[in-house]
């Protein structure tokens, strides 16, 4: 990148992930926010869309084409739903922009798997096999060279970070893994829907998409790469009456007789150079990660099983925070830049 500060645009700037991203970028010493988009044609000021940003960012959200975005910004963050991201990526890349996509459009390598789980034909399928999966803790060696980074999903980040050290070292069996995960309602986005109304979520706890959630193949794909073999995961998400936060409780079959202390050592060694993963002696909870880019992990052996626990903020480490880690990597900056909580 040519300047000390990299010009950035946020496409889909009126949603929750974008709000969180803008909050992080505003304190980032190497990012200059130059453009925000919405499909609305009344060009709302960002402070009217995200009141928390009042007085901190003087920009309007505009209905801009990919060509206009690429002309203004060196890096474009896509905070749009799946389907909408692949509609703009080819033009953005052709115009020379680097792209960090927060949606699921480029996470799966196989277009047939994408079509099966997203009920949508991929319109840019040729790019899928080579797109870099933006989980820096696993792929920080290849992310810096990428023009397009596919940011991971929120449940998937928690699940993959929890299981990768144990699968990589052969400490657990790659089949029969159960991920039981809970998320706050902001994980469903800002677009109003019945299931996330206050009176539906408040004082309630419910599972959804049992066995057929779209994050299941994403978790299996990433972990198969780590394990060097097919990985079989049963994933059950739950909606909890919180704004934000994910807790995943994961059950696996041990592949040997290692105890809790040995497995904790394995996890600590695996993440020794990963500033945003904290391996705890105690049990993680969402509150300790709220508003931060940390993923808190621990592991236990109990009744012949290995139990791994992971907590993170779905909007930060699960979305906007990891996007900024990726931004740092593709612009040649230290991964922690813009994250005072990690010394950056
Ligand atoms: N929320 C979370 O915890 C996480 C979200 N993600 C992913 O990040 C992305 C953004 O999520 P989130 O912020 O929660 O979603 P929101 O629903 O809160 O925001 C979506 C944004 O996309 C815009 N948008 C909606 N549909 C289209 C379309 N067809 N074309 C162009 N723009 C569109 C909306 O803008 P407008 O209506 O003003 O045009 C809005 O700015 C999604 O892909 C989501 O799956 C990933 C990990 C975690
Ligand atoms: C609570 C809730 O509804 N969460 C969302 C996951 C959010 C996310 O990471 O979505 P993408 O993979 O689409 O980016 C869901 O279950 O669909």
Task: Describe this protein's structure.
The protein has a seven-stranded parallel β-sheet, with helices on both faces. The protein has two domains: 6-152 and 318-339, NAD(P)-binding Rossmann-like Domain (Rossmann fold, 3-Layer(aba) Sandwich), CATH 3.40.50.720; 154-314, Dihydrodipicolinate Reductase, domain 2 (2-Layer Sandwich). With 344 residues, the chain is an alpha/beta fold. It starts with 5 loop residues before the first strand and ends in a 14-residue tail after the last helix. The protein is built from eleven helices and 14 strands. It has helices at 16-26, 46-49, 66-72, 89-94, 111-118, 136-139, 154-168, 198-201, 215-227, 260-270, 316-330; strands at 6-11, 31-37, 61-62, 75-78, 98-101, 132-133, 148-150, 177-183, 206-207, 233-239, 246-252, 277-279, 295-302, 305-312. The structure holds NADPH dihydro-nicotinamide-adenine-dinucleotide phosphate and N-acetyl-L-glutamyl 5-phosphate. N-acetyl-L-glutamyl 5-phosphate is lined by residues 82, 103-104, 153-154, 183, 187-188, 215, 237, 239.
List keywords for this structure.
344 residues; alpha/beta; Rossmann fold; 7-stranded parallel beta sheet; 7-stranded mixed beta sheet; 14 strands; binds N-acetyl-L-glutamyl 5-phosphate; amino-acid biosynthesis
